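Duplicate of earlier report; Transporter input re-posted below.
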Amino acid sequence: METFAFALSVTGPIFLTLLIGYGLVKVGLLRESFVDDASRLVYLVTLPVLLFTSIFTSKAELAEQWPLLLAGAVGTLLTMPLAWLAARPLERGDRSAFIQGAFRGNLGIIGLAWALNAYGSSGLAQAALLMAVVTILYNLAAVSLFAAYRQETRFSWSRLLREIGQNPLIIAIVLALACRELGLRLPEILLQTGDYLASITLPLALLCIGASLDLGRLQRSSLAAVGASMFKLVLVPVVLLACGWLVGLPGQSLGVLFLMAAAPTATVSFIMARALGGNSRLAANIVALSTLLSIITASLGLVVLESILS
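Output:
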């Protein structure tokens, strides 16, 4: 019973905040223009600040986290070809949407929020480092898919490096690690200001995700959308947890790895599906379906994991 209560304490507040965002749009208190501006503010300003402050002020050392980062990287690399194989029976126009939806998780918002709820600031710092590694792999896969499904476009290392180098989340994480290694001490007024900005990140981002949900799309969900959602919410966590177990991760690290792996499909997969000329409706269905189902799968998975670890 205590394990189940712990799982609900991690996922429940996230689900309720999503529902509030959805409800605020329905009653007209949140408008599309505000959601667009707030989402941009989160991505460019407050989320990078959150990642910087959580890593910079964390007592965890990067060298101690290499097993977690290794498990996350290897597990992600294993799920990518599996997603490609699973998409083979689909029509060519549906494959890019399926593949992106099957492995690309919403780490920056849902994953971080779950890790913070479950393990506090130390879990958040671990999740931020893991997100940096996995995000680079996501970008590599996205550019590769773009080259594979758009014949007129070739794979470009310069394009990949440019996208990584311009990613504000990766920039914030690298800067935080560099400042820590150099032993810099930031003025308390800057850290306090950073805390103010960081504190609005997850609630605002979750409201925006909830406001962007279109539950009407769920009625049009296909077997492909269900398959991609189950791949993301069940197979991906199992693969990453297996990697974590093989490298001997301790309990909290396994929990962080699971929560990040169990995050639903990232909304950027919808954008990538459109860029790839794929089925954008399928991509939207995967995002909506996986977001709602993730509350159930993550809760049950966390119950099982905590029961095994206890």
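The chain has one domain: 2-309.

Merging into the original ticket.
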